[in-house]
Amino acid sequence: MRAKKSTLWVTVIVIVVGLVMWAWRKPGHRPDGMRMGPGQKSLGQLWLEMQATTQQTLYYMKGYAYAFIPGQRPRRLFGLEGYNIRRLIETPEKDGYFVATREIVFYTDPRTGEILWEWENPFTGERVEVFHITNDPVNFRVRIRDGRYYSVSLDGQREFGEMRPPQEWEDFYVWYADVFPFYPLPGWKKKYTAAELFDFYVPKRALHTQGPPEVMVSWTRVGPWLPWMHMDDHEGVMIYHARSRRFTSWNALPDRIKRLVKEKYPLYMKAPDKVDPHRPNATSWTVYMEEMKKRKARHKER
Q1: What average pLDDT values come out for the chain (302 residues) when binned by 10 residues?
Q2: pLDDT score at 58
Q3: How far is CA 180 from CA 2, 6, 28, 183, in A?
Q4: Residue 38: what pLDDT?
Q5: Model-level pTM?
Q6: Which of 173, 217, 223, 280 fits as disulfide partner to 244, beta carbons 3.0 to 4.6 Å?
Q7: Where are the alpha helices (DSSP H) in 67-185?
């Protein structure tokens, strides 16, 4: 139950958008998926296509993670590089779609860009194993009722709100979400307290074009130290800041990312093709805890 309240990467990215939706009206626009005129989409349809389509798409992201400790100079700890891969899957009730996704993001050396497998913690002096972001699944659900788009719980029992209207910045529609998660961390005594800040930029011309729209994303997260850093009792937070863009093909990813995923994480080469609405979404904390449980069980078997 706790894990169901979790958010993502780049990505946990789309779940939080639904949590801040509200009703909207704009003269001359229909909120449903019907076209308003020759070749023109509604803002509701454009918003849904921004999230995903029935064909596989990806959000490739790149940025940095920083340490922020009051009274000390902020320090760049890691580079970030990876993606979220997704598709729309119609719900069993035929009342909308699941946005079915999984995500993988690698922590890299901030100077060389090399992918890290071990890291010497500059605050503790401890050399630790790096656990990359491998969250599967990271899903959310959209209900379409009377031509309107609503975010609902995965099981369809709770309705969070209606699609939020975008701001208009010259040639772009900008959907945004400023969200402040606060919930218990599984396996930890403290609560997850964070900020997740997103801006989604979509060209206005996408209203008149076929296929998935071009999308650029800015993402900032302020949150606790990662579990594998072993800094639970240390003051301070981590700040993530990354840019992201949509790809329509896995082959558009950088070669080194494709090679690594193909060799070590082949599951992440494709978007999910089904959704279990009762399965909790994964986070860095739940993935880490599950891995620790597996290792402990293997150790006992020896």
Answers
A1: 41 40 35 48 92 96 98 97 98 97 98 98 97 97 92 95 92 93 82 94 95 95 96 95 97 98 98 96 93 90 76
A2: 97
A3: 16, 12, 34, 10
A4: 53
A5: 0.86
A6: 217
A7: none
SS3 for 102? strand
Contact partners, residue 79, CB within 8 Å, separation at least 6: 62, 63, 64, 65, 107, 108, 109, 110, 113
The Cα 246–Cα 294 span in angstroms is 35
Cα 136 from Cα 115, distance rounded (Å)? 21
Per-residue confidence (pLDDT) for residue 12, from 0 to 100: 40
Tokens of 274: 């089904």
Residue 39 pLDDT: 62
The pLDDT value given to residue 27: 34
Neighbouring CB atoms inside 10 A of 282's CB total 22
Tokens standing for 76?
Answer: 């760049």
Give yes or no for a cis peptide into 137 (omega within 30° of 0).
Answer: yes
Residue type, 143: R
CA 108, 112, 118, 121 torsion: positive or negative?
Answer: negative
What lies within 8 Å, CB to CB, of 197 at 6+ separation is 177, 178, 179, 219, 220, 221
Residue 52 near residue 193 (C-beta atoms within 8 A):
no
* Residue 188 main-chain phi, psi, to 5 deg: -120, 155
Q: Where are the domains of the chain?
A: 3-301
Burial group, residue 230, by CB count within 10 angstroms (0-12, 13-18, 19+):
middle
The pair of structure tokens assigned to 73 is: 């100079």
